[in-house]
């Protein structure tokens, strides 16, 4: 390699920059669509040929570009959106780097026609390999239309990396639906081979757009969320825990209308759902975080898919609080549009509240992974305490949007298959899995803090005859290490000579379990798990195990008073829509579902 240093010609630097900005046809769609939105367009048409690999045309009715400015739009670092560096922290537009058009034009052929509303005629420009080939006045409608062809012709390596046309088209549609979700007021249309494949009308109602874009089935299982603290506002939709997906792809996060992939926000979402979902299941969520532009740095990623928050912890906390608040208050048949006929009893109010506190505690205690994350996200704020206690006074108004109905107020119809309890509700039919329900109730009782307990906390009941158990050394030491957790659950064990323990109490809320069997089974389950658990996970696992053991089984007849007690307990239990393993506690059929099933409409 010869060792001389040269300044690269602009043509080359643009091509290099394009490598970052333009990865595939979908990147072109993203940049052009964002330019259209920045120009205030309310009607955008996207035409894709060969999944965007052949050509892409985006036509908007936005403000257009001044004739003399047109060549400038294709110059590197030329933008109309910022004038000085600090403007970056004030912009509300998608673009500001002035890189997209020159990057795109350096790897393709671009033909643009554009006209400002006040101009009598527009401008047509053709740019090839970064060079303006033709520019002339032209008659055209108000707005801008950009046609991109010969994509990657000059970069054969990139071309090789492109996937099948359908895959590339899928990526383009992803980009479009993401933008559509945060811009309900903009009409969007997608056309391929002259056929309209997507037509999204403008609407004021975000939820309509959500149903169009994500699917109507999601709409049947969502709760709106909304909350603000200081200058951070959070809104959107979360799904009920029974509506899960196998990947995190359906978590849509927006910051100031910009779709982003953000570890912090994803983590906050998953924290709010902690213990509500089965392993490797993910919720569908549309989350809009809005905050003053100065609170977030968008200039950290070439395609601006990542952002950096000035106060990440505040954002994290607000998101967890708002989402966990909504999820803790989940009740059956929530899609009821009218005000709920029934209101929560006092007990359930407390249940919801303690659910919220619980979620926050879970997040502050957080797992080993969480710690790592905090260390990373707050490396510059080391001195700050991570286990923040949340101020209490905001809880009431922030979560005033919660509504719900009470299980105790439902009409009990009977039990089927010895397992499912059938209830008639004002809006439909509800089936409760008695085992899953009882499991969740016991689990939350184990977790209750002694101070918070009004009623039957998991206290120990003294055995008349303490039970002596001798154990293999490994199990003995595991049991000794877990003594405190067990004690919290109401199981008091003490060492009694070498490798022998004596069990003194059993949980009062599990009157029917045989202490020795439970402890042996518990050891069988946990002392072998190779990876050490942190305290919170260990507690959760042990509590879930005990709850499962103590809960009423399937095929167990319940008397009416037993059912009534179960309902009261369920009302007072947060996160009551799933069992600790993530299975649903109840399933509801609204009357409209039933009418559909019976083909009455
Ligand atoms: P940026 O969006 O970062 O400013 P671009 O290279 O994407 O950079 O665009 C350069 C400039 O061209 C923009 O600042 C804007 O003034 C103008 N422009 C691009 N596309 C459009 C459009 N569809 N309508 C109006 N003006 C546009
Ligand atoms: Mg742009």
Write the topology of this structure.
Blueprint: H1 10-21, H2 25-38, E1 43-49, E2 55-60, H3 70-73, H4 100-106, E3 109-115, E4 122-128, E5 131-138, E6 143-149, H5 156-161, H6 165-182, E7 187-192, E8 195-200, H7 206-214, H8 216-219, E9 222-229, E10 232-239, E11 244-245, E12 251-255, E13 258-260, H9 263-272, E14 282-283, E15 285-290, E16 296-297, E17 308-309, H10 312-328, H11 346-365, H12 368-377, H13 395-398, E18 411-416, E19 420-425, E20 428-433, H14 434-447, E21 460-470, H15 473-481, H16 483-488, E22 492-495, E23 500-507, H17 515-526, H18 535-550, H19 560-571, E24 586-590, H20 591-597
Parallel strand pairs: 1-7, 12-15
Antiparallel strand pairs: 1-2, 2-6, 3-4, 3-6, 4-5, 7-8, 9-10, 10-15, 11-14, 12-13, 16-17, 18-19, 19-20, 20-24, 21-23, 22-23
Bound molecules: adenosine-5'-diphosphate (ADP) and magnesium ion.
Description:
With 601 residues, the protein is an alpha+beta fold. It has 20 helices and 24 strands. The chain has an eight-stranded mixed β-sheet, covered by helices on one side. Helix 2 packs parallel to helix 6, helix 10 runs antiparallel to helix 11 and helix 14 crosses helix 18 (535-550). The site of adenosine-5'-diphosphate has 22 residues, from helix 2 and helix 4.
Global geometry: elongated
Question: Could you tell me the radius of gyration in angstroms?
Answer: 30 Å
Unique ligands? adenosine-5'-diphosphate, magnesium ion
Number of strands: 24
Give the fraction of residues assigned to helices. Answer: 25-40%
Structural class: alpha+beta
Give a quick account of the main beta sheet: strands, pairing sense, barrel closure.
Answer: 8 strands, mixed
Rounded mean pLDDT is: 79
Tell me what portion of residues adopts beta-strand conformation. Answer: 15-25%
**Which residues form runs of ≥5 with pLDDT under 50?**
333-404, 451-456
Number of helices: 20
């Amino acid at each position: 390699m010869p060792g001389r240093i040269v300044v690269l010609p602009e043509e080359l630097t643009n091509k290099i920059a394009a490598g970052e900005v333009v990865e595939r046809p979908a990147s072109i769609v993203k940049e052009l669509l964002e330019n259209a939105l920045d120009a205030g367009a309310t009607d955008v048409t996207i035409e894709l040929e060969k999944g965007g690999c052949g050509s892409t045309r985006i036509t908007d009715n936005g403000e257009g570009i001044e004739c003399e400015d047109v060549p400038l739009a294709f110059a590197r670092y030329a933008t109309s959106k910022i004038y000085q560096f600090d403007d970056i922290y004030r912009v509300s537009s998608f673009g500001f780097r002035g890189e997209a058009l020159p990057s795109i034009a350096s790897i393709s052929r671009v033909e643009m026609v554009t006209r400002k509303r006040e101009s009598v005629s527009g401008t047509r420009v053709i740019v090839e390999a970064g060079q303006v080939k033709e520019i002339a006045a032209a008659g055209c409608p108000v707005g801008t239309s950009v046609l991109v062809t010969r994509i990657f012709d000059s970069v054969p390596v990139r071309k090789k990396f492109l996937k099948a046309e359908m895959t590339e088209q899928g990526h383009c549609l992803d980009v479009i639906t993401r933008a559509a979700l945060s811009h309900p007021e903009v009409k969007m249309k997608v056309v391929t081979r002259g056929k309209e494949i997507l037509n999204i009308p403008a609407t004021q109602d975000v939820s309509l757009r959500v149903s169009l874009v994500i699917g109507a089935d999601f709409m049947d299982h969502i709760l709106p969320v909304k909350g603000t603290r200081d200058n951070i506002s959070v809104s959107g939709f979360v799904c009920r825990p029974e509506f899960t997906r196998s990947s995190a792809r359906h978590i849509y996060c927006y910051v100031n209308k910009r779709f982003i992939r953000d570890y912090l926000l994803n983590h906050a979402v998953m924290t709010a759902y902690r213990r509500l979902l089965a392993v490797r299941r993910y919720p569908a969520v549309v989350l809009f975080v809005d905050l003053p532009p100065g609170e977030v740095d968008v200039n950290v990623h070439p395609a601006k898919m990542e952002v950096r928050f000035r106060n990440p912890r505040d954002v994290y906390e607000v998101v967890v609080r708002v989402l966990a608040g909504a999820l803790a208050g989940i009740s059956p048949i929530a899609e009821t549009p009218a005000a709920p006929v029934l209101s929560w009893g006092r007990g359930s109010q407390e249940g919801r509240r303690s659910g919220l506190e619980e979620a926050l505690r879970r997040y502050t205690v957080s797992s080993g992974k969480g710690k790592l994350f905090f260390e990373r996200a707050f490396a510059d704020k080391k001195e700050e305490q991570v286990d923040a206690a949340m101020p209490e006074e905001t809880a009431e108004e922030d979560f005033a949007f919660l509504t719900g109905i009470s299980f105790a107020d439902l009409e009990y119809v009977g039990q089927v298959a010895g397992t499912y309890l059938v209830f008639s509700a004002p809006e439909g039919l509800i089936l409760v899995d008695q085992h899953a329900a009882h499991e969740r109730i016991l689990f939350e009782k184990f977790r209750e803090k002694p101070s918070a307990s009004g009623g039957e906390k998991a206290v120990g009941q003294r055995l008349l005859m303490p039970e002596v158990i001798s154990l293999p050394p490994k199990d003995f030491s595991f049991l000794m290490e877990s003594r405190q957790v067990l004690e919290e659950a109401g199981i008091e064990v003490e060492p009694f000579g070498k490798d022998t323990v004596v069990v003194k109490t059993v949980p009062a809320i599990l009157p029917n379990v045989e202490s020795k069997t439970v402890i042996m089974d518990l050891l069988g389950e946990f002392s072998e798990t190779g990876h050490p658990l942190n305290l919170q996970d260990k507690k959760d696992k042990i509590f879930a195990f005990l709850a499962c053991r103590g809960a009423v089984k399937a095929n167990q007849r319940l008397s009416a008073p037993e059912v009534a007690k179960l309902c009261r307990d369920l009302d007072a239990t947060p996160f009551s829509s799933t069992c600790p393993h993530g299975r649903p506690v109840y399933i509801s059929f609204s009357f409209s579902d039933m009418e559909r099933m019976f083909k009455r409409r």
